[in-house]
Amino acid sequence: MTNKILYGGDYNPEQWLDYPEILKQDIELMKEAKINTITLGMFSWSKLEPKEGVFNFDWLEDIIKKLSENKINIILGTPSGAKPTWLGNKYEEVRVVRNDGIRELQGNRHNFCTNSPIYREKISIINTKLAQISLKYKNIILWHISNEFGADCHCELCQQKFREWLKEKYENIENLNKMWWTTFWSHSYENFDEIHTPMTIGEMSITALDINYRQFMVKNYIDFFNFEKKCIKSITNHLPFTTNYHGTGNNNMNYREFSKHVDIISYDSYPEWMIKNNLDVAFETAFNFDLMRSTDLNKPFMLMESSPSSTNWQSYSKLKPNNLLSLASLQSIAHSSLSVLYFQIRQSRGSAEKFHGAIIDHSGKSNHRVFKEVKKLGETLEKLDYKLTNVETKVAIYYSWINKYALERTQGPRNEGMDYYENVLKVYKSLKSMGVNIDIVFEDSKLDKYKLVIIPMMYVLEKELAEEIKKFVNDGGTIVTTAPVGYVNNDDLCHLGGFPGYLKEVLGINIDEIDALTNEEKGEISYKDKLYFSKYFNEMITLCNANALGTHNKFFYKGQAAISKNNYGLGSAYHIGTLLEVDGLSDLFEDIFKDLQIEKAIDNKNLIYNSYLNRHYIFNFTDKLETFKFNNENYVLEPLNYI
């Protein structure tokens, strides 16, 4: 698409059609800020089709022409993310039904039914017209389909689609009853028509129902994305397609599955800078960049949205202090992004996001602080090239959306604190603070390029994945699993024969019992003459072929194995039978790094390192001066700065 970094953001000229002088000024300010790319049309349906069947694309083409004259690229959006009032009011079926059975009124966004034939018909008409326009202008470089997919729907259209999807998956109701263990509480189904999506007014006790609904909704949005794409491709096939992933790994959307259908992976990043500890936020941001880009390592990755200053929908609209904008933006570049794009170019004058950060604020001047920093960063990015290539690393972490779904819904061994995302973050921070690049891998990933793979909380584990893990270790790889591992299958049925199920042989252990800890309790783990705290629950482990590296130091199972290592084939398999805090994880990983001769790039855990295209980035997100050694040379890094 380009070998230069794309720089710019979301532009909404439809809000300013009555202010031609502002539209003219906007382009002048874009050029001054070194902006070369804008996203256009995302929420413009009511201006493109103000009444049903009445279209006005003149204003859009005028803007496209002016941007073209000023050599500004366009990412052209389809407007399905926010339906116009006439559509929502006239056609009830396009509005979602909540999980309490109530159909929403018209309003807000992220709230259309993907299975509504009328909604699909209306968006196909407008997409076809947009596709015809795209053929005229060479500065349109990318299609942006809809916006931040993710709302659930429980209407009768979705209910019926869900039943059809279940029937295709399980083939008959007898298989479904067996796999969902519906004889418990006498909840067996006689036919698929008796099944409803998980709702507060209906069935909420079957974990497999919820897991399957989550997977079904992902499939729905992928299907809708492909429907929109097909409409456009019927006219033209000369541009790539994307849609913006959003939130964090805590989002219910399985982006690994979605990435099989996009040409470019794009992500909206809105960290809670200055609300939480900035270093912790930076580690979490790094994780989400790695997670999103890793959903397909063979496709480009781009930062589609971020805020140049504050966000208005978080708890507090905290400003980014001087230099934090540059740090946060360059962090995405260090993780292979081909772009730095913001929401929004010009601040909305009214409604929901009038106080959301923007490049051009309500003053409309170029002499305010944020604009100056945006311009300065633009000058920096002009000097950088982009090339599609993988981030080099020998270390990976498993991430699994089905594990996230299951751990959120299963009852026991602990009904709070079993936060999959937060515990994966702890593992990531422990590794990332050691100065290494990290890939995220998934159930269908190949592992042979890695030396070390961490597998946190793999509660759901099927035989096929277990065999892949065993082969990796047998061929010389090293794994580290954490509790809980290998308890159930994809439908939340416990593995018979005990835990860790299919990984018993490679881990060399049996997990006999699980002890939940209260919020007031902390476990103590003894490892190499030091004590480390653990939280939430402890596994009681019997060693088979494995050796104990660490032991429980509290409760009636004091002295029993808590951390184990098993040599298997040419490799090694570690298991942590609890949830350690970052310090304990870090010390264990430090020892494993030494054994595997994995080199750390830097030696300061208050700094964040990443490398890409032979460029090494070291970021100081703290408010303190930090020193470090890199390539045997000593460096000093100022607060909120990078090299």
UniProtKB/TrEMBL annotation:
Its EC number is 3.2.1.23. Pfam families: Glyco_hydro_42 (PF02449), Glyco_hydro_42M (PF08532). One of its GO terms (molecular function) is beta-galactosidase activity. GO terms for biological process: carbohydrate metabolic process. SUPFAM superfamilies: (Trans)glycosidases, Class I glutamine amidotransferase-like. GO terms for cellular component: beta-galactosidase complex. This is beta-galactosidase. Residues 10-384 form the Glycoside hydrolase family 42 N-terminal domain. Gene3D superfamilies: 3.40.50.880, Glycosidases. Residues 394-598 form the Beta-galactosidase trimerisation domain. The active site is at E148, E305. CDD domains: A4_beta-galactosidase_middle_domain. Belongs to the glycosyl hydrolase 42 family. Substrate binds at R109, N147, W313. Zn(2+) binds at C113, C153, C155, C158. The keyword Metal-binding applies. It catalyses: Hydrolysis of terminal non-reducing beta-D-galactose residues in beta-D-galactosides. Keywords: Glycosidase, Hydrolase, Metal-binding, Zinc.
